[in-house]
Design a protein that fits this description.
Its EC number is 2.1.1.72. This is site-specific DNA-methyltransferase (adenine-specific). Keywords: Methyltransferase, S-adenosyl-L-methionine, Transferase. It catalyses: a 2'-deoxyadenosine in DNA + S-adenosyl-L-methionine = an N(6)-methyl-2'-deoxyadenosine in DNA + S-adenosyl-L-homocysteine + H(+). InterPro entries: DNA_methylase_N4/N6, N4/N6-MTase_EcoPI_Mod-like, SAM-dependent_MTases_sf. With about 550 residues, the protein is an alpha/beta fold. The protein folds into 3 domains: about 280 residues, Rossmann fold (3-Layer(aba) Sandwich); about 90 residues, no CATH class; about 100 residues, no CATH class. The strands form 8 sheets. A 10-stranded mixed sheet has the order 1-23-2-20-19-3-6-8-7-18, with helices on both faces.
Amino acid sequence: MSKYEGLDRDTLIRLLEQRDHGRQLGLEWERDEIDADQAINDDFVGLQLDTALSHGEAPWDNLIIEGDNYDALRALRMTHAGRIRCIYIDPPYNTGNKDFVYNDRFVDKTHRFRHSLWLEFMYHRLLLAKELLAEDGVIFVSIDDNELFRLGMLMDRVFGEGNFLANVIWQKVYSPKNSAQHFSDDHEYILIYAKESTKWQPNPLPRNATQNKAYKNPDNDPRGPWKAGDLSARNHYSLGTYSITCPSGRVIPAPPSGMYWRVSEKKLKEMDADGRIWWGKDGNNVPAVKRFLSETKQGVVPQTLWTYQEVGHTQDAKKQLLEVLKFDTSQEVFSTPKPVKLMERILRIACNPGDIVLDFFAGSGTTAQAVAKLNAEDNGERRFILVSNSEATADAPEKNLCRDVCAERVRRIMGGYTNSKGEDVEGLGGSFAYLRSRQVPMHRLPTKIAHDEVWHALQLLHEAPLQPWIGSGFQAIETHDGWVAYLADQKAASIGLLENWLEKAKPIRGRVYSWSPERFETQAPLLDWPRIPDALQARFSKRKR
């Protein structure tokens, strides 16, 4: 039965008028026709620490979160809103080949609302991602032809058309597919949007040997290699119409037709005296400006075509994964990894030492490997947050992609491993905390939230590396913004720890979170005494409009 059957004439007219006055241009999807995303709810999300699956010693700067990424993003909005410098995601491409799950079911090509389901799924997650980005932050989204155009319109809606930066072409294969019916599909796309385009600037990419190859030194100039640049240009220049006499005696009466010399006659003589003009080996050529490699910018502006020679291809990515994890084929673990060099390229453009990188479709953990590699190169302190689900199914209930692939790969990359040739590979260093998201109904938060979940949230909220809750009833750490402490209960032992801390640390700046702050405010009036769970609940529920 249609949902419109049984409606009276006036109601139907009103619905038609609403439709006619609705959006005339832009992206629409059948939101009223599809089932709601079951991940969308108002529950609080806590983060539980698994020290056994974490790597390295506490405190941990990097996080791997197991759970639905919508839950993880809501938890991170509470703790990291406006702090993420770079987001990279590689979402399901919605090919219809069991790559996209909506409400615990695969969406195949025959589904009537296949594209609407995907848009609904992505829309809610991108809204949260936008809140996490810093004002000078940027998001990179990998995609292919299946959803490229719809994704572009969705990104325009969420981030604003004016914040579109680029659509990068990544050449994902090194040879054409001769079996293709029409065209060989050789590339994917990376859509790039800024939180605020006027506040974001890309880092220049390092120059490579190919780019430097054009620089020579035929005259043994002590300033090093150079390349010749045109002395003439089409831009009108009133002082750029003089004649030039070459060292050989040849007279060049004027610049080429329709063009002007770039510099005045006086400036040309000064440059020639400084050895910055090239006349050719016999001194008879039209003069050229010598542009020295040593004086060029040490980086180049990123371009929008990324070849497999520069950033790797899909076979590289699979080999890199199998070098670290001991599986016969990559299909057993993760079938669509991205090459490490591709992620390095993105991070070089978007991140600086100390920035936080978020990947909430973390897959096999390539993003973390690229972060660790760049940190090892320059001793930077870039940090990552990866989010991945277990991806368990009825056919594979024990599957846990986050634990067994993503986290295990990162653990081996950081700590060292033995590759497929039996060679020991030294670790890149670093550590991470392994967390699991847990939903807590908001109305039951006062009785159901665990003390460790409170402690983890408070540390992340105040930009502190994560330390485990030791269960003593009171715990405190000093951060860049003063002390952060948590009094978990009113037991005598816990209060004794609080009073001992107040006596020894003598904190004059910071916050002590407590379930009954009014009992202690007078003991340390210089400190703030926020109430739990109210303080967390308020931040968790706060939504930007």
